[in-house]
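User: Run a structure prediction on this.
Assistant: Running it now.
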Amino acid sequence: MKRTLIKTIALSSLLTCSAVAMADQSDYKLMVIETATAPQPVEQSFNNCALNVKSKNYAQAETICTKAIALLKQSEGPKMKLRELTSFALSNRGVSRMMAKNDTAGLSDLYEAAQMADSAMVSHNLTRAKEYLSL
């Protein structure tokens, strides 16, 4: 009971956190969770995904982003906020795939992210990927 309450409080903190963009040399935007009050597995996966993209560890970034997406899909909380964070994680994974030259999978992630939530950062990444691919 106590553990469930702690998880609920921690997840509520996560869902009130905002995401911020990290600029990258490629002009893609990576989203991270700004506050350190999120449940450790979600926050760690989400932010490590962006860190690995920035460090050019694209294969590892893809794996970690996929884990963050799975954790978010299992989380409970306000549906709109979970959709937004899942959209951001999909966008981060899409960027990692684009940078790894896995263009089809990257573009698919970016389209899915854009459909999940209306975000200027996600839209920017999708537009950037389409420009890169001359679509």
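Strands lie at 19-23, 29-33.
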